């Protein structure tokens, strides 16, 4: 047996370490996809690997990193660990992610020091989240990162004296509190901003977005919002609005959206088809959006039976041409008569339509099951301007008594 063992050892000794022989930039790319704890561990593999990790261009201190530290009872050492890793790092840092958990006690001065370090290492993509009970003031040293192209902030307070980010392309703000005037100053101070996301933010009751370079805008569930205007963001092509229409000035919103001549993707969540104002808003919107390619809409409303003529504030019988529209996804709480009118209108006025999906999330008991079946059959029989149009009917509710 001994000769066989010695032969096996020789074969193993002669095996080629293909990973170590890869170019350094390829190895760095591989390490960018590993948790930070494993990236640092590669330093013990061999002499060649000892210092490769210190030049990895992407550093991520996410939930897995903090969980790993807490499981080993070193949670109180986390700020020092992050500081040591940054100090040992010798190359540029293009992307940095930090998700501070709710149970971590950390001085904001630590975060300021880390950001100051990153500003000197060519940071381009920064993702900061602070899951504390109260929002933290945005680190002042963030303004030193003038090379930033992508910035995501979660649970911070934005000061009114917001300074410029001349290279910023994509800005995402979640659970952010704005001081008075901060949002407008923020947008105007980013001269080449292309994409803006505002989600679950609070502070301003009026939003006036002015940015001729903006093409993508996503607004979701803003607190205390009463007015939205983006007439001066006329180059928008991609718009997502998840709001409560009853809480805002629909006329101003309608004027803003109908001025968007280049709009190709529209996602609306919160339209209530029991409200005449919402119906008028939807009808005007469709008739002024000839370049739409994709429409996603979430409709609320409980009117199952057809409404009397004197209660129907608007219908969708007037024709218009949505010549570019290819994809439609309509999700309804329950299949109201107006939702069906909208579907009929879209099928009849979209000559390029490829697929329309009609989803029902809820129904009012088993006694309506036959009605549900009838609606699905009616949808499939509706006239279509496009010979290629496919109609899908989906139901996710229950049919219990």
Automatic annotation (TrEMBL):
It comes from the Eukaryota. PROSITE patterns: FBOX. Pfam families: F-box, FBD, LRR_At5g56370. CDD domains: F-box_AtFBL13-like. InterPro entries: F-box-like_dom_sf, F-box_AtFBL13-like, F-box_dom, FBD, LRR_dom_sf, LRR_FXL15/At3g58940/PEG3-like. Residues 16-52 form the F-box domain. This is F-box domain-containing protein.
């Amino acid at each position: 047996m001994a000769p066989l063992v010695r032969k096996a050892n020789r074969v193993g000794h002669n095996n080629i370490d293909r990973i170590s022989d890869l170019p350094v930039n390829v190895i760095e790319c591989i390490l960018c996809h590993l948790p930070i704890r494993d990236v640092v561990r590669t330093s013990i593999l061999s002499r060649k690997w000892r210092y490769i990790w210190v030049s990895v261009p992407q550093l991520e201190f996410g939930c897995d990193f903090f969980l790993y530290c807490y499981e080993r009872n070193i949670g109180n050492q986390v700020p020092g660990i992050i500081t040591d890793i940054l100090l040992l790092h010798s190359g540029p840092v293009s992307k940095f992610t930090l998700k501070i958990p709710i149970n971590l006690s950390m001085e904001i001065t630590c975060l300021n020091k880390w950001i100051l370090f990153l500003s000197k290492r060519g940071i381009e993509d920064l993702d900061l989240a602070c899951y504390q009970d109260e929002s933290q003031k945005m680190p002042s040293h963030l303004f030193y990162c003038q090379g930033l192209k992508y910035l995501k902030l979660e649970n911070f307070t934005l000061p009114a004296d917001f300074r410029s980010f001349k290279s910023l392309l994509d800005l995402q703000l979640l659970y952010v509190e704005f001081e008075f005037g901060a949002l407008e100053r923020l947008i105007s101070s980013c001269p080449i901003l292309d994409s803006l996301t505002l989600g679950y933010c609070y502070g301003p009751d009026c939003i006036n977005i002015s940015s001729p370079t903006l093409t993508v805008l996503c607004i979701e569930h803003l607190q205390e919002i009463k007015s939205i205007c983006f007439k001066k963001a006329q180059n928008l092509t991609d718009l997502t609005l998840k709001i409560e229409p009853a809480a805002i000035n629909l006329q101003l919103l309608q004027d803003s959206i109908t001025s968007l001549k280049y709009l190709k993707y529209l996602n609306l969540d919160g339209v209530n088809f029991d409200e005449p104002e919402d119906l008028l808003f939807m009808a005007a919107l469709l008739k002024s959006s000839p370049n739409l390619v994709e429409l996603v809409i979430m409709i609320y409303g409980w009117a199952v039976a057809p409404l009397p003529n004197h209660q129907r504030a608007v219908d969708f019988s007037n024709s218009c041409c949505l010549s570019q529209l290819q994809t439609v996804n309509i999700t309804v709480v329950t299949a109201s008569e107006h939702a069906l009118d909208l579907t009929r209108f879209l099928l009849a006025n979209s000559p390029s339509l490829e697929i329309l999906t009609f989803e029902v999330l809820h129904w009012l008991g088993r006694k309506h099951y036959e009605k549900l079946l009838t609606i699905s059959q009616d949808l499939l029989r509706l006239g279509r301007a496009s010979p290629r149009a496919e109609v899908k009917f989906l139901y996710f509710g229950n049919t219990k008594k």
